Structure formats: C-alpha cells, structure tokens
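Residues pack. One example:


***
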Amino acid sequence: MRDPIFFEELDRTVVDTNGVQRHDTFSYPYHLHPHTEFFVILEGEMTLLAGEEHVLKAGDAVLISPLVIHGYRSDGTVTFCSMVFEDPLFFDVPRMEEFGAGSCICFLDTERAFPDGELEDVLRAVLRYRKRNHRLLLTLYCRILLTLVLECAFAGDGRCRLTSAGGRDPVEQVAHDERSISAAVLPYIRAHYREKITLNDLARTLRSNRYTVSRVLNESFGASFSELVNRYRIREACALLEKTGDEVTKISEWVGYDTISTFNRNFLKFTGTTPRRYRSGGGGYQSNITDGVTKGL
C-alpha cells in the first residue's frame, strides 16, 4: 500500500484499488482520507484500529466513511483486498453521511450478508477489470459493489453492524500530541471552513498552543493554517462551479469568503485562472490541499 497520506483526488474514478495483497506481517499506521474505503479479509486476521480495536477474520469486510482516522495491524500472515473510492464518482449513490450515519464504520460478514455469493462475484469482477486496466467496467463494478454494501448497511435487517467512529467528532479521535495535529487538521477544516476560523481556534480544539500547531503544520504540510483553509475553500468552490449554476458571488460566500475580491485573489492563486474562466473550461485545477502530507502521520 502507499505511504500513509491524505489520498489526493487523482480523477473522478476509483482513487486506489490495490488488488489482492498477502503479507506475513502487516502494519499501516493511523491515517485518514476524504474518500470511502472498502476493506475485505480473504485469509488470516487483521486488527482495525479506529478508536477501539476490531479484530477482522477471513470473510469480514468493513466500509469506512470519509475522514475517519484508522489504521491496520496484523501479527501473522494475512491476505486482503482494499479499495478507496472517489465519492463524486457515485452520482446516484448517496454518501454514507446522507444516511444520517456521519463518520461511521460498517462491519459485515460477507458470507452471512450475501449467502448467494453476489458480493464475491462483484469483487472478482472488480479485480478482473483492474488487472485488464478496463476503466469503464472497473468503474461500473465498483459502483455495484459499493451499492450492495450500502444497501446491506442501512437495510436494518441485522446483516451488518454499523457503528459511529468512536462516537466522537473526528478531531477528538486522536490523542492530543504533535503527531495527531497533522491527522486532525483536515477534519477540522472540513467541518468549519465556512466559518471564520483561525489558528487559535484549532489550537484550542487540540488543547495545544498556536506556536506548536503552526510549527507542526509547516513541518507536515509546508503551509500555514490559513493557506490550508483557503486551499480547501477553493477546492470546494471549484466543485460548485462545476456542478451548479450558482453565481460566483454566492459561491464565494458559501465557501466562507466575506468579499468577492478576497475570493477572486485566492482562486487565482491556487488555480491560475478566474472563477468564470474555470467554469467555462479554462481551469486545470488539481486539488493540492494534501500535497506532501506524509511526515508525522
């Protein structure tokens, strides 16, 4: 698997499909990403670290909603398959939050939940078309897989277990030390970017001080807190420009800017173009809010 990072938006398809992996021992430290993750154990055992420890055995699968801090550990031989989905791909498949689940993890025994083997068949198709690099059919079967799991998760018929991510706000899922600041900043920004938030606000939430938080952010992200907030706001503005017909002024207010001039200045800084040119096809924005976020996670 990749180094622990915030996964970037590579395109509007599956962000990361690792295929089947086998390890004699395996460890993947705490991390988070703004995407939905599906993880299934094929052989052996794995411990999911997400506030509490959850032992997963062969046939167990988990669906993890975006921005849940989690990790994995196995002391013995384990075979598994993991996928990370770019949510905008699923135009007609609601995000997990829209079911009222918030930051949650869905646990399911695949044999009990799908006794006819339909999930296994779809998973085999995903792996087959991944190997062939057939993006269209890979996308189609990933949609089917996610739909099957979501339907099972929220059917309320006892086929799976749905839990909140520790029952707490994402920022409160990690210990308040320097290593956790990098992991906590993106959930905090996502939750509050439309508000007037400052470095002092983040420091108080983390029970730290602004000088420590500022230093850790610069070491981990290579950017200040205000720059990270602006990057996230502009990323959200780009999505609204692509998906809605709202006026630019309305979009700028929606993502947290008091004045259109400040919005335009930051939009130009991070995209290299103006909002109107971006909407008309002149943009080439690649989300870089998480560039270089490897250190400290």
Observations:
- The first strand starts at residue 14 and ends at 23.
- Strands lie at 14-23, 26-31, 36-43, 45-50, 52-57, 60-64, 70-74, 78-85, 104-109, 160-164.
- DSSP finds ten helices and ten strands in the chain.
